[in-house]
TrEMBL record:
This is Transport protein. Residues 142-211 form the BON domain. Residues 59-79 are annotated as: Disordered. The keyword Cytoplasm does not apply. The lineage of its organism: Bacteria, Bacillati, Actinomycetota, Actinomycetes, Kitasatosporales. The keyword Aminoacyl-tRNA synthetase does not apply.
Amino acid sequence: MYRRTVGDVMTEEVVTFRPDTPLQQVAALLDANDIVAAPVVDDDGAPVGVVSASDVLRHETGMPDPQGQNGNDERSWGKARARTAGTLMSSPVFTARADWTIPRAARELRRRHVKQLPVVGDDGLLTGIVTRSDLLDAFIRSDAEIRGEVERDVLGRILGLDEGTVAVEVRDGALTLRGHVPEPRLVPVVVGLCQGVDGVVAVNALLSVRPG
């Protein structure tokens, strides 16, 4: 059963900065593209940091953070005095790979306490960016999409059940299965496979064993 990956949901056309990009241009591009952060890349295209709108705000307030806290942190004060993306950016940069599963990327975002991850290839060069909203969108699927995948991939391709053996109903991501299966042991298998389909929030299996 196909599971969508970071490569399926990431944005490939990424706004990037160079280390010497002036701060004024950084702020203008973030605003023009309605984004909260963008990666900083080196001459080869490898990400070396990330500049966020909150970084720009720190600079504009002249304080290490918008609330003026961490005043004794020299690195924060240095960022507040920054004039380029390279001196303003957060580094090191945490990255993802296109072949990561959606749950793995979500766990990495949470573990790193960030809202987006630049995506790199085997050569370490930037190939895209994935955000929290990208990952959430992967689970917000129409009921028709979910029903089609369950009927086609779970019941048909994987389990080999005849069409019409199990009726599938989906409402707001909640799945109801009605029908018969050849053996009792298949009931938990069907439920487990359906729970693994992106977008499914619950499975109600009203299944019985087909009379011999």
